[in-house]
Structures are given as C-alpha cells and as structure tokens.
Write a structure and sequence with these properties.
By secondary structure, the protein is an alpha/beta fold. It has 2 domains: 160 residues, Rossmann fold (3-Layer(aba) Sandwich), CATH 3.40.50; 53 residues, N-terminal domain of TfIIb, CATH 2.20.25. It contains 6 helices and 11 strands.
C-alpha cells in the first residue's frame, strides 16, 4: 500500500480504479486512506466478499460486475491499478490491448496506470513443474505448471484435496508478457512509461520477481 500511495501520488479524494479487484484486498485499503475507489471484477462471488469486507471496514466502494474489456469510462480516474498478475488471461493479445485502450480512455489527463505482473525471465530461472503445500484447514494444495514457449503462456492446474477426501480442480492460463512487450503495448494505447520496478520493495526492474510498470496519460 505504501508503494501504491507513493508512486501513484494518491491523496484523500483521489479517484482510483482497481481493475480485477477480486475480494477487494487493495480496494478496501485504498478507501481507508480516503481514496474514492471503484472495483471492477468478473466474479460475482468476489464482489460479494469485497462488499462484505468494505462494510466490515466501514468504507464505501463502487463495485462493478463487468469484463475488463468492456470498461466504459471516460477521463474519470486519477489512477488505475492492476496488481498481482491479474492482466493477461485472455486468449488473444488483441484482448489485452483492448483492455489497455479502455484504461487509457478511463484515465483523466495526467493520470497513471500501475501494472504489476510476474517477471517471466526471473521466474523461469527457478521454475518448478510441480509443487504442493498443506493449507491451514488441512487441505492439500497441489500445483502442476507448464510454460508454453511458443505462446509465452503459463499454464497451471491447481488441485485441492480436502480433509473429507473430496477434490476440487482449477485450471488457468495467462500470458507472461515481458517488460519490452508491455512497454510496446502501453505505447500503442498512448500511455507513456514513466516508472519501472522489479518488486514492491522498490528494487530495480530485473532485480526481483515482479514487473511493475507505471504509465501515464499525457496531459495534452
């Protein structure tokens, strides 16, 4: 939160869009700092949890159930945040470029997007095809991973073996864009890169396991 507030110059009253907000981990905390926050997500269940958490925290959020490709706001936000690798899940790059174009339209002149995703080159140095851990409730979590070099996509299957013996399985695939690819896409959306980091501790890009980019909408 300190990183977001500092590097997006957020103040009480700043208008912020949390893109793919999930259950509102970021949205609620920004609202607690006095920001006017809109959270957008495709999952009704996540939005229910965000609404509940906001009420428990005593803050108000505007929560929007929508596909991020359909974001339809104009010059409304001082900042847009897309964090924890929530960008790149659509099957085609054209869809991701459509999202960035919509973000550019939604930003007020001088406003900025902060985009956070994994640093694929660094991740591949320590890549493991399988991993597992035991969760607090006794559930066994198994993860199988595959990287598609031709498509630049990280494929994963998560299997949860619950204490009662039942199993749940989730699969996902997302594009692990490199920093140069993202910079080019931001440029095509008329957003100007003006900051980059390799982690939430402020390490230089390439020195951590994240790719964090800040791109600003020109004032004129």
């Amino acid at each position: 939160m300190a990183f977001l507030v500092e590097h997006l110059r957020l103040e009480p009253g700043s208008r912020v869009l949390d893109l793919a907000c999930g259950r509102g981990r970021i949205s609620v905390r920004l609202a607690q700092r006095g920001c006017s926050v809109t959270g957008l997500d495709l999952s009704p269940r996540s939005l229910e949890l965000a609404r509940s958490d906001a009420e428990a925290a005593g803050v108000e959020l505007e929560l929007v159930h929508a596909d991020m490709r359909d974001l339809d706001r104009a010059a409304e936000f001082d900042a847009v945040v897309s964090v924890f690798s929530s960008f790149g899940y659509f099957p085609e790059q054209a869809d991701d470029e459509r999202v960035l174009a919509a973000v550019a339209r939604a930003l007020a002149p001088g406003g900025a997007l902060l985009l956070d995703t994994i640093d694929t080159p660094n991740v591949m140095k320590r890549y493991k095809e399988t991993d597992w851990e035991k969760l607090d409730d006794g559930t066994l979590f198994l993860e199988e991973r595959r990287y598609d070099y031709l498509r630049g996509r990280h494929e994963a299957t998560w299997t949860f073996v619950h204490p009662d013996g039942s199993r749940t399985e989730l699969a996902h695939s997302f594009r692990g864009y490199t920093a140069p690819e993202l910079v080019a896409m931001l440029g095509r959306a008329d957003l100007e890169l003006d900051g980059s980091w390799g982690g939430w501790d402020g390490v230089e890009l390439g020195g951590g396991h994240r790719t964090i980019l800040r791109a600003r909408k020109p004032v004129a």
